[in-house]
Amino acid sequence: MDLQPRFRELAALYRSTLLDNVLPFWETHSIDREFGGYFTCLDRSGKVYDTDKFVWLQNRQVWMFSVLCNRVEKRETWLEIAKQGAVFLADKGRDAEGNWYFSLDRAGNPLTQPYNIFSDCFAAMAFSQYALASGEDWAKEVALQAYGNVLRRKDNPKGKYTKAYPGTRSLKSLAVPMILANLTLEMDWLLPKETLDQVLDQTVAEVMTDFLDADRGLMFENVLPDGSHLDCFDGRLINPGHGIEAMWFMMDIADRRGDKDLINKAIDVVLNILNFAWDQEYGGLYYFMDSEGHPPQQLEWDQKLWWVHVETLVALAMGYRLTGRSECWDWYEKVHAYSWSKFHDPEHPEWFGYLDRRGEVLLNAKGGKWKGCFHIPRSMLLCWKEFERLAEGG
To answer: How many C-beta neighbours within 10 Å does residue 376 have?
Structure first.
């Protein structure tokens, strides 16, 4: 079967959706021209319904528009939008010790303490790509400072803000090494080769050894320090979206290194997660699951979320391009049909984020505290480029 016409069709679809639908939504509605930074709490039509600024989403939007300049074209409007957030965040986003807050009010006054390192992770990503796009040396310094924070705090990401009693249940989370893997690739042009190789080696080993259950082929969200499982809510937690997203990070690293074994191992995990987490009755991927089939503690466990599905599209498109495995293509078409029929809004730009189990829209907002200018546009960009390469035979 000749798939070239389908590849060209998909490349055009993702390109036009990104450039003509999704980005204009954020360009039109999210820019705070009075105080700097961005609004992310936007309703279906783009109206602002809350002006608080969540630092990780602010940094993600700086990253997105910087990456567009670096990987699509050096468009002045995109660079200005990135600068709008970068200047605001460099001035308002950190405490006196250089740790990045979780949230600010509209004017940039801190609201929530820097209780985790995820704001720092996305600050490092954002300012690395902004420095590359703008040539600003000060942005390089901000990126390296944030990256240093992440490396310093990665073994205790919440620091003094953790609620856990020390020593009783020392679980570690997949979120830290998976984000560090992707973040380090984003900063490769700024890091010494020894640092780059060392961090990537460590993160790949940790993700693919400690968090991957070799017997079941599933990624666990939390494990003990030695990679073993603990029989409790957190210890049995499967987050399908995280596991699949982590696997395309692994594929990206493996592709750069020419490691075919790691690519195929990551694809095997993606396929195992899909078979485990796909809702056989209503379609779509569950948000949270218990590895043993017990009731999850997350009451929203059966919701269908935007980021889970679009990250799956990236993983499957990448996996198919790298290996040509038919299972990747079959699953891609299945997830594509679900995602574009359920999350895509035919009447207004951008995509819905939250569906109930049956695939009906729960919240018609296009952005909020957790959804911003990141997963949808990033997936559109990456899928566009994957299918463009497939259409060109690469």
So the answer is: 29
Highest CATH level, class, for 1-29+172-394: mainly alpha
CA dihedral 304, 173, 379, 329 (to 10 degrees): -80
Low-confidence ranges of the chain (pLDDT < 50): none
CATH 1.50.10.20 holds for 31-163? yes
Residue 48 tokens read as 């602002």
CA dihedral 301, 304, 309, 312 (to 10 degrees): 30
For residue 259, the Cα-to-chain-centroid distance in whole angstroms is 23
pLDDT value of position 160: 78
31-163 shares the fold of 1-29+172-394: yes
- For CA atoms 114, 41, 72, 250, the dihedral sign is positive
The Cα–Cα gap between 349 and 346 comes to: 8
What is the spatial distance between Cα 391 and Cα 362, in angstroms, rounded to a whole number? 36
Q: What is the C-alpha R_g of the chain?
A: 20
CA dihedral angle for residue 286, residue 289, residue 292, residue 298, rounded to 10 degrees: -140
Domain ranges of the chain: 1-29+172-394, 31-163
* Chain centroid to CA 393: 27
pLDDT in tens, 137-162: 999 999 999 999 999 988 888 777 77
Angle, helix 193-205 to helix 240-257, in steps of 10 degrees:
140
Provide the whole-model pTM: 0.97
What sign has the CA pseudo-torsion 75, 80, 85, 86? positive
Burial of 215 (0-12, 13-18, 19+ CB in 10 A): exposed
